[in-house]
Amino acid sequence: MDYLIVAGGAAGGNNHGGGGGGGGGLLTGTFTASPGNYSVQVGTFGVGGYTNPAEKGANGSNSVFSSFTSIGGGGGGGEPAGQFPSSGGSGGGGSGTNYSQTGASGTAGQGNGGGSGYTNNLYFSGGGGGGASAAGIAVTTNTIVQSGGNGTSSSISGSAVTYSGGGGAGVGQYNAVANTASAGGGGGAGAGGFGGTDANIKGSDATGYGGGGGGGANRGPNTAYGDGGNGSAGIVIVSYAGSQILYGGTVTSSGGNTIHTFTSGGILTTFAQTSTVSVDQLVVAGGGGGSGALGGGGAGGFQTSTVSAVIGATYIVTVGGGGAVNAQGSDSFGINIFSVGGGSLATQEKPRYGGSGTGNISGNFNPRRYPGIDGQGNAGGAGYNNSTKNASILAGGGGGGGYAGGKIKTRNKLVLQTSEV
Fold this sequence. Notes:
By secondary structure, this protein is mostly beta strands.
């Protein structure tokens, strides 16, 4: 039996020369199935690096099949100093924002390193994220095009598909506009931002499986800076010759082979699906941490489903913990579904998104309602600040599983409004 294990792709870094996100680690091989159950975990994508608060791209998470593990991609570097790219299945590209970062390393047998960034205080060019087949392109001159490393093509699904390409890097110039985006390394990897307008300074999100997100860019002579693009989730595929003898995942056939495809966690088992029981499950993630007067934390993502569970099988579930102050809650994983941790406010400008959105203070900024994940939670409430009359600054409530957080409208009263549950 043949397998393909692709981990989650990482996100691109922020600002005007963000590094591309590394592709998720890619493993292929063969194994012999003995009677029993084989657990499957599919890695989630990394979230793009924010411009405010400034941070690098987040890593993708690991994918696991039986005893084999593919390592999540490494996040692309960003600004300020210290936001270096991360190692992973493939490494993140270095930032070129006011200093030149070295690209991060990949994992031997799974991917390649990210490219290094470059700046001479006129050009700001990040390095491309590493891909499964090639390293990200390093920048050594005043170039504005640097691509992510190529992914790897596989026909295990019955058709040729490219997986785990590296994200393109952000490119920009201090007093001019870059006109060309740096490309991702195939397989849906995100292109880098390239300045010019607010619409194209953000790195592109990856699509497909295991791709790295694009790096953020600047807007030429203006002061706007872009966030990094998100990576894409992983996948696990098992294929063998002949008719079906295993159970689990989405089962298809092609060219005389039976193919089991997992885009979320589950079990591959030798036990027939007739030996099953219907199971109702409730999966609630950890709640986001509050931020004092800056806003309430969002509730953890809330999902229910009914699944068929194999009698005698072992299922791995993960219960997410609550977030500390200013920290997002942890995800919870059930059988074939996962709920995202509640959002939390990091600064007055930028929250961590989550299963339910965080509340927000308005401060000197416009009041905002930060969204939750569709089907899992609701938006947080917007804050209120009437600075012209020295009114109290009031924070919005975090979103709940059933209702959005309250929007503060009252002046001169210390009232913190929470969501209904």
